[in-house]
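@channel sequence for tomorrow's demo:
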Amino acid sequence: MTQTAHGCLPFLPMRQAAFRLRSPIPMPLAITLLAALALVLALAPLRIALALVALVAVAALAWVGPVWGVYLAILSVPVQQYVLLPGGTSLTQAAVLLMAGAWLLRLLAQPQQRLAGGPMLWAWLALLAALALSASLTPYDQGEALKATMRWGVAFLVWLVAASVVRERWQALGLLACLLAAPAAEALIGLFQFFAGYGPASFRIAASLPFVRAYGSIGQPNSFAGYMNMAWPLAVALAVGAVWRGRRTGLRLAPLAGLVGAAGVTGGALLASFSLGGWVGGLLGCVGLLATLGRRWAAGAFGAAGALVGFLALGGVRLLPDAVAGRMTRLTSMLNFFDPATVTVTPENFALVERMAQMKAGAQMFLAHPLTGVGPGNFTPAYSHVASAPWYVSRGHAHNFYLHMAAEAGALGAAAYLALLGASIWLAVRAMGRARGWLARSVAAGCCGIIAAVAGHNMFENLHVLNLGVQLSGVWAILAVLPRIEAPEPHDEGDERR
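structure tokens (generated this afternoon):
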């Protein structure tokens, strides 16, 4: 099996060139084609020029491989709000369109290629079908429903293309690099904001402290924390795996420093976000990571998590710094459900009561439309019909994704999403059981941690926004291709037999 060239990814020794273009264009012909294209672009109207550029990009990606479109889509997530193309198209949307176009061209040229399948594919199709049905029956804004359904379609396309075209080891290593590099770069931005105090006054942690909650280029601390939860477990697992392997073969300081750095900045940025849901997700991510080490580790992880929760509930919060203690107290309050209409609002409980008002509205939407919901993306249009006084302004989601999905897509959509989540867990457990080399074991363990972290964080937020699903789809895809690209080295096989 072809392996990647030295330096393609720093944590694995490589023996052969990553890849070679099989039919390189002769230089004179390439120069002629480029000159002709430049002349046409200079003389053509703007719309035609843009269409030609897109066509050339699709053809180029189809030639070198659609996997590069997958890489571009994942790397574009942190900058999607800042790089807008003509027509208001985000960089992520453009990358996904290029990826899909290149993949379709490759399928037409090589129709014998196989598509990714299994329970994950059927769960995806069931979810998209439930969302499409809900969108077609919505009594509110059907256009917004179709847009929300298409956003899920984008995540599905990234998973399908990645799981179908990543066949060789260098391609999987490139996917891993993208899944770590983009969140690590975003984490550095968030840490700068935290320590420099650069951000809105509403994000300030305490009046007496100069720090603000990290929010990165994403713009919201909670969504930013969700992005970190989609990366740090993978970075930690790879760093630990690299150390374990290095004890037998010699540590490689440069790659180890890169992995430890990625784990440190993403984990630190999660803490700096001061997102309660993000912290809960991070705790469950730790449990998910430790659970991959065996039943004893799993039991110990659950016990330690329970002891921590009990310690905080019994007064341990008082031992924490004031800024952190305030967040922990609010977290315990969030676990007590109440009717927001019966509570006197004060500056101290404002955020909590507002959160409960959004959750109550989501529950009422589901009760009013139990089968298909109010329609994807229609939480805000439907909110005014179920709002509780004085909470007449929608925050866009129910502060609990499972309730939010039930409100927007009904029981069918919620069941389909849970099936997708269950399929990802099944895929992760199977990958962990089949992994043999240190790299495959580390990747599988990290993905288990990510799935647990996202599932826990979604109890308090909606992480399927701002194309964060592209990152999560990449994580699911690497699990799907792990058995096909694993190539353990001889000493790894020996260690496994022992």
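heads up for whoever presents: The mean pLDDT is 80.
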